[in-house]
Write a structure and sequence with these properties.
Elements (H helix, E strand, L loop, with lengths): L5 H11 L3 E2 L2 H4 L14 H4 L6 E3 L4 H14 L3 E4 L16 E4 L6 E5 L4 E5 L4 H8 L4 E3 L11 H7 L6 H4 L6 E7 L5 E5 L15 E11 L3 E8 L2 H13 L6 E5 L1 H7 L6 E2 L2 E2 L10 E8 L3 H12 L5 E2 L2 H9 L13 E10 L3 H11 L5 E7 L8 E10 L5 H18 L3 E2 L10 H5 L1 H14 L15 H22 L17 H9 L11 H4 L8 H12 L7 H8 L6 H5 L6 H16 L5 H13 L19 H4 L7 E4 L2 H5 L2 H13 L4 E3 L9 H6 L2 H17 L4 E4 L2 H18 L6 E4 H10 L13 E5 L3 H6 L4 H8 L4 E3 L14 H7 L1 H17 L4 E4 L2 H14 L4 E4 H8 L8 H18 L1 H9 L2 H6 L3 H11 L4 H19 L1 H11 L4 H40 L1
Parallel strand pairs: 2-4, 3-4, 21-22, 21-23, 23-24, 25-26, 25-27, 27-28
Antiparallel strand pairs: 1-2, 5-6, 6-10, 7-10, 8-9, 8-10, 11-15, 11-16, 12-15, 12-18, 13-14, 17-19, 17-20, 18-19
Helix pairs in contact: 1-4, 8-12, 12-13, 13-16, 17-19, 23-43, 26-36, 28-29, 30-32, 33-34, 34-35, 38-43, 40-43, 41-43, 42-43
This protein binds flavin-adenine dinucleotide and iron/sulfur cluster (2 copies).
Length: 1020
């Protein structure tokens, strides 16, 4: 089994279209799981970059894929979300990684039978959310609930939250549909599930499963501190023996409690965003039971507390521990790596095993465990997860890694076993699964996988690696003393930049737990579905880059630039990593620091900004054309006021109803404010995200000066991005630039809501039927600035209006996709914004209200593309109309401008640019000397001319392209319908954009252009 041939690639592409990737950068992100292997062990596993990654959507596609792989002798490695750490998802024979990302459909929920059926790629959190409206919930789930799949858990096997009552996951599965190695589909039930569970996909690809679920009930949580591992054991034995009605029981050891007390807290723009809850340095057991059983559980527990010297901890600790149940790797920020060890032990050995491990492992080892009341053979068991914080970049990591075997050996001595097999413990299959089951699996695999293509080298033995692991186990007592002497420093301590990656970001890249919780919240990711677009993928790529296994390329530069800055990832990251701000800083490193081109649309905006200080290439003289003449005396430029209303570029030039309505509302509310008129400039947000920080710094200076000169102390905005700039970004930049900053930022909705509350603004009664509205929280005003209530108060103050909230709202609200998606990948923008439109329509509302001009632009364009029926209306527009004002319909201008910018941006992409230039060879060649032209003609007649011309073009394009800018302008004008202002400025914009883009894109352009140049020269 080797690299795919070009025919094989073509046939895969024919089967899966854009759901298969052969891109080297992308594939490299699908060759690992959460574990970091020590450097000395990596050669044993070998290179694990697959030849392709495919994302099937249906069982039928899985069948086709398996048949194709069988016929072509290509290995298939299934992948849920790669949150396991046993190497099961590693494509050790390369071939194809089968990513279940697009198989997430919840197919049926049977409330009576209490079962749920879903495709295997469904993430637990999503399945649980689907159960909620039926009054149901999961019987059990892994702690990786926000980021792992149902199929992955069945294939991997395991126990988790709820296992105290529900047991091992396999026992909660009713049936599983599986695509076998010969392409047949079979449903497994009862004891036959043993052939699929814990089998890591070696016997088939699970396409769908039906699991048992339970009624959703309110839970109560109790946390208990015990002084020793033996008292912890005694407490748990009491709970088991007395059959206390507990649903879930987990625990941590004192070292884990101590580390959790020091882990950095989530921050928001330099301020703590969460409170620290201090844990006692003890064994802390967390019990969850149904609320109706609380009194019973607490009452009966009283009898055991004293003999165990245990104490019930505060409600706050209990709640905190429960809420942190999915964050068990939160302390990884202190490592930045972790050496993991995992084992299952009989409950009766828990105390001894933990005490002996602590004695033998002379490193700070932290433990987290869960208890299964009826484990193997119906006896109680504890699953113990151990971690030793360490740094994988150091040689000592290799020695400390050996200590993971210490814990396993101790567990085995006490009647325990490894948790799973996967790749690393395949040689321990008999102990993990039982000898009889291994024999059954082996025999079945022979029949079920006749071509030997399903997840090779996993579970049933893996030759050399297994043998070496056995040897390592035997040698563990010899290595242990060395490892014990390694000095482990715990705590965040970034030291120096690595290959231009700032020191702290380098640290975060290694601390990222690769848990994937960030994936489903990230609109950049779910709009495209490929790892490189997720925070997890980017952190992993940075590691590779810092280890010189990857280099900056356009794919990764663009993926960094395409982050929409929505900040949802940060709310989901259990390590509280500053993700968005890290990407922001790397954008600067790339664009200002390494002269990489920004996104073409940003280059266009940057060029436009240099002219008339707005990003839409409007005329400066038109900037304030929207301003209502009757308000000039009271709020026009020159009127002295403490508040300055800034409209922002998009409202000033495109959606003018937003700023007209905002000033009408502010005026009606009695707010004294002024405006800057033509002197208002762009807030600079597009330059910040474009990585053009030098330009941004100048904008910050100019804007602060302009507001000061107007005599204002408060900036009032309608655009959330402007608000974010003035509220959070400018203060930090002013400090950095040494400019005094005493300007406050308010959103108009906050001022209007205040006047509604104090009675100075009252909306008139409305006749007719109530209007049904839903509300979209913008990322920058909501999640970032924390303004959620004011807009709702404005809506609720209007008579005859009914507000229907969307499923995802406030801090959890979906991002619209931001203009960044629109200007980068319009088709993706339509999908991402389409999800919000779908949610809005699901509320039954007639109108979707929003206050962000950019969100509205996005929604309007997406609604037109997707045929969504809900009307998109600006909040200020709606409220000003309720006050009796007439406002322009923004849609015609949105359509006119987008009809210009969409094709213009497409022409600035490498494909578009190459297409334009390929039609201009006579003009381009005319700019060359006669001798250069003759030389090119000679080259064109040589064998391999395209490759030679490609090299030549790569060097010459950066100087050639700007020379033909005037001709290019003409050709662009022929193809793109432009507003007058854009057409006027194009001759100035075009050379600047070409100057910025052609150099960094020269390689790509040369590749695309060389064949057409060769053909042109030959034809001459
Ligand atoms: C923070 C955190 C907490 C965790 N908590 C728990 C816990 O409480 N209990 C626990 O048991 N584990 C836990 N894990 C480990 C891991 O999350 C689980 O094993 C999880 O079930 C793996 O799911 P996945 O979708 O990521 O599968 P993957 O890791 O992608 O795959 C696991 C194995 O299953 C195979 N596979 C995946 N999908 C399929 C399919 N459709 N058909 C056939 N084979 C397939 C893969 O090839 C691989 O061998 C935790 C991990 C993390 C990071
Ligand atoms: S800020 Fe938004 S788009 Fe950017 S990485 Fe985070 S979730 Fe994804
Ligand atoms: S960024 Fe955070 S949420 Fe995403 S994979 Fe890393 S640790 Fe997990």
């Amino acid at each position: 089994m080797g690299t795919l041939t070009s025919n094989q690639r073509e046939s895969l592409a024919a089967l899966f279209g854009d759901r298969v990737t052969f891109d080297r950068t992308e594939r490299a992100l699908y060759g690992h799981d959460i574990a970091s292997l020590p450097s000395l062990a990596r050669p044993l596993v070998g290179r694990t970059v697959p030849d392709a990654v495919v994302q099937p959507e249906t069982e039928a596609e899985l069948v086709e894929l398996v048949r194709w792989a069988g016929a072509n002798g290509v290995a298939l490695t299934p992948r849920g979300r790669a949150t396991s750490g046993y190497g099961g998802v590693l494509p050790v024979r390369k071939g194809i990684v089968v990513d279940f990302y697009r198989m997430q459909c919840v197919q049926a929920i049977d409330a009576e039978a209490r079962t749920a059926t879903a495709q295997a790629g469904v993430v637990w959190e999503k399945l649980d959310a689907a159960l909620e409206p039926h009054g149901l919930t999961l019987r059990l789930y892994p702690a990786s609930y926000p980021g792992s799949t149902a199929g992955g858990w069945l294939a991997q096997g395991g126990a988790g939250i709820g296992s105290f009552e529900a047991g091992w996951f396999r026992d909660n599965v009713v049936s599983a549909r599986v695509v076998m190695g010969d392409g047949s589909v079979r449903e497994f039930q009862g004891t036959e599930l043993d052939l699929v569970s814990d089998a890591e996909g070696i016997t088939g690809l699970i396409s769908e499963l039906t699991v048992r679920v339970m009624p959703r009930e309110e839970l109560a949580v109790v946390a208990i501190g015990c002084p020793t591992s033996h008292t912890l054991q005694r407490l748990v034995e009491f709970i088991v023996d007395e059959r206390l009605p507990v649903w879930s029981l987990s625990f941590i050891n004192p070292s884990m409690a101590a580390l959790r007390n020091t882990v950095p807290l989530r921050e928001h723009y330099g301020e703590p965003a969460e409170e620290r809850v201090l844990l006692p340095e003890a064994y802390v057991a967390t019990l969850a039971c149904r609320a109706r059983h609380r009194a019973d559980v607490e009452g009966r527990l009283a009898a055991i507390l004293k003999p165990c010297e245990a104490e019930v901890l505060s409600e706050r600790i209990a709640r905190h521990e429960w809420e942190s149940r999915s964050k068990l790797m939160g302390f990884k920020r202190l490592g930045p790596s972790l050496v993991p060890a995992e084992a299952v032990v009989p409950l009766g050995a828990l105390g001894d095993m933990l005490a002996e491990t602590a004695r033998k492992v002379a490193q700070p080892i932290v433990h987290e465990g869960i208890v299964v009341r009826a484990g193997r053979d119906g006896r109680p068991e504890a699953v113990i997860l151990g971690f030793i914080p360490s740094d994988e970049r150091r040689l000592s990591f290799n020695f400390i890694y050996a200590l993971s075997l210490t814990m396993l050996r101790v567990a085995e001595r006490h009647g325990g076993r490894a948790y799973a097999t996967g790749l690393y413990f395949a040689a321990r299959g008999a102990s993990v699964l039982g000898a009889e089951r291994v024999a059954r699996l082996r025999a079945f695999k022979k029949r079920a996988d006749p071509h030997g293509i399903l997840n090779p080298r996993k579970v049933l033995g893996n030759g050399l690696l297994g043998g070496l692991l056995r040897m390592a186990c035997a040698a563990e007592p010899l290595v242990r003393p060395f490892a014990g002497h390694v000095v482990t420093h715990i705590g965040e301590r970034p030291t120096r930049p690595i290959r231009g990656v700032p020191a702290d970001i380098a640290w975060y890249a290694y601390s990222c737990a690769q848990c994937g919780y960030c994936l489903d919240g990230c609109d950049q990711f779910y709009g495209r579905g490929w790892e490189s677009h997720s925070p997890r993928g980017k952190w992993f790529w940075l590691r590779q880059y810092m280890e010189r296994r990857a280099h900056w390329n356009r794919t990764m530069a663009e993926t960094l630039l395409a982050c929409t800055t929505c900040e949802l990832c940060e709310a989901r990251c259990p390590l509280a990593l500053p993700i968005e701000s890290s990407w922001m800083r790397l954008r600067r490193e790339l664009v200002d620091g390494r002269s990489e081109a920004s996104l073409p649309a940003f280059e266009l905006m940057a060029a436009a900004l240099r002219g008339a200080n707005n990003v839409w290439a409007g005329r400066r003289a038109d900037r304030a054309a929207w301003f209502p003449p009757d308000l000039l005396d009271t709020h026009g430029p020159g009127h002295p006021a403490a508040n300055a209303y800034l409209a922002g570029c998009t409202a000033s030039f495109i959606e003018r109803d937003v700023c007209i309505a905002s000033v009408r509302l502010l005026d009606a509310a009695g707010v004294d404010f002024t405006t800057l008129g033509e002197a208002e400039d762009c807030c600079g947000m597009p330059m910040l995200v474009a990585g053009k920080w030098e330009r941004f710094a100048q904008i910050v200076r100019d804007n602060i000066r302009a507001v000061r000169e107007a005599g204002a102390t408060t900036v009032v905005t309608s655009c959330p991005s402007c608000d974010m700039m003035w509220r959070l970004i400018y203060p930090a930049w002013a400090k950095r630039l040494g400019i005094p900053y005493d300007i406050r930022a308010r959103h108009y909705s906050e001022l209007v809501a205040e006047r509604i509350r104090d009675g100075s603004l009252i909306f008139p009664e409305r006749d007719g039927k109530p209007v049904h509205l839903t509300w979209h929280d913008s990322c920058h005003l909501g999640r970032v600035a924390g303004v959620f209530d004011a807009p709702r108060q404005v809506i609720q103050a209007m008579p005859g209006v009914e507000l229907h909230e969307m499923e995802r709202r406030r801090a959890d609200s979906r991002c619209c996709g931001n203009v960044i998606t629109l200007v980068k990948d319009p088709a993706v923008a339509a999908e991402v914004a389409g999800l919000v439109l779908d949610e809005a329509q699901a509320t039954g509302a007639d109108k979707l209200l929003s206050l962000c001009p950019c969100c509205q632009l996005q929604f309007r364009i997406a609604a037109a593309r997707n045929g969504a029926s809900i009307e998109v209306v600006d909040l200020a527009h709606f409220a000003a109309e309720a006050l009796g004002f007439d406002l322009p319909d923004p849609l015609p201008e949105v359509e006119r401008q987008w009809a210009c910018f969409e094709p213009l941006i497409a022409l600035m992409q490498p494909a578009g640019m190459a297409d334009l230039m390929a039609a201009l060879w006579p003009e381009i060649l005319a700019t060359l000397s006669d001798s250069d032209q003759r030389m090119m003609q000679r080259i064109a007649r040589l064998p391999g001319a395209a490759a030679l011309l490609r090299r030549l073009l790569r060097r010459r394009l950066p100087t050639l392209a700007p020379r033909v800018a005037p001709v290019l302008c003409g050709r662009v004008a022929e193809r793109v319908p432009m507003p007058e202002s854009v057409a006027e400025q194009l001759p100035e914009l075009m050379p600047r954009v070409l100057d910025a883009l052609v150099g960094p894109l020269a390689d790509d352009l040369a590749r695309r252009l060389a064949p057409s140049l060769a053909a042109h020269l030959r034809a001459q």
